[in-house]
# Entry
Amino acid sequence: MVAKDYPFYLSVKRANCALELQSATSPAKETEEPSNKRVKPLSRVTSLASLIPPVRATPLKRFSQTLQRSISFRSESRPDLFSARPWSRNMAPANTKRRDSKLWSETFDVCVNHMLTSKEIKRQEAIFELSQGEEDLIEDLKLAKKAYHDPMLKLSIMTEQELNQIFGTLDSLIPLHEDLLRRLQEVRKPDGSTEHVGHILVGWLPCLNSYDSYCSNQVAAKALLDHKKQDHRVQDFLQRCLESPFSRKLDLWNFLDIPRSRLVKYPLLLREILRHTPNDHPDQQHLEEAINIIQGIVADINIKTGESECQYYKERLLYLEEGQRDSLIDNSRAVCCHGELKNNRGVKLHVFLFEEVLVITRAITHNEQLCYQLYRQPIPVRDLVLEDLQDGEVRLGGSIRGAFSNNERIKNFFRVSFKNGSQSQSHSLQANDSFNKQQWLNCIRQAKEKVTCAGKASVLNLEAHFLLSPNGSRVPQGETTLEQMDHSDCESDCSMDTSEISTDCERMEQTNHCENDKQIETNV
# Structure
């Protein structure tokens, strides 16, 4: 380059830099010509990110305490967010409607707070949380009916019978909670404080027994809902609702499960109110009574829901042969846990742990229903041998497959085995993660402990039923008592008869003696 041209080159370079800076700072226009440069499509990434629902910590406490968090027929329960949807193209991200938590001290007059102690303020906060939770629950139940049930029925997306199966007795729960909310609002003072709530809860809580039918229907409702999601009309409708602001990024099942989660939360709410209630307060006794009532209701619903869930799965077991049927399955009233596991060959299995038997099945579709075909003979928990396998201890089936397998595929294994005479089984099962594996191990160990304790208890009862007889032989306790009674009766009867006989004999001897004397005197 010539020296005299150097200032001109600098001026051109400065102009180019200024032009690039201006183009970088100016907003992008849709009418601009496409450039050869690769530019990251920020707008599409933003819209795509808006479709991903946030992780929400849903209540994990189920009534039957099973491992499977949901019943899914296929992977359609989680839609493919990257697939094209006609209604979501070039759509601006919707503003999610979020529910703000409210505090009693922020809702009502702050001047009242200066007149109350710290403990009383906490008590008012707990009572207000109970009332506010009722409002939110009523709003969600009405939303589920208005935004999901009625449109799907009107558009014929589902039949009325299917919707009744999925929604159950949801409509009957709305006036139930409206009644409690009305009672709580009636006893609230103008300044927002509430003096007594115990008597209200004692009178209202027995109404929660109506939750029995709703909770017992949840297993069948979830199964039908997941099955209907295979229909593209149902899936499209639910996805539209999920992307709408009113859903708060919650799917339909989250709304249907809200009543159950609210039910198990009542004991916690009442304990919180009781914890901040003075001992000399009139509510003290009523709150304790209310806690006992709700604990009994939850326990009863828990048992009935577990029995309903157990019956649901027992009816969907398919036996390849009659020899696979087991009375331990028929007599089971609860499912300890169940879920999907894999064997060392990668075959997906659905395993059920009933009270006294472990059943290994394969999920199949039979008559458009998800059923479970028995994979092997049921294993009695009493004779089951459990082994916790270390990572890398299991060798995957097939030499080539095992040689090229990564470390993730040989983790989280445990083994269950059984041997009884000529029959023997051994299964190496893989869980999804370490937490799932530990849950299975705990459930199986607890089931074995219960069976063992029940066996010992029956032996003790049997031994207590038998007592040693006088001659040293073992005689049932009832028979021993009866025999002792018989012996005592016999002894008393014998002694009575002997005394009577001896008396009669003496009388006869005296009579004979007198007659002999008379006869002698006569003879003389």
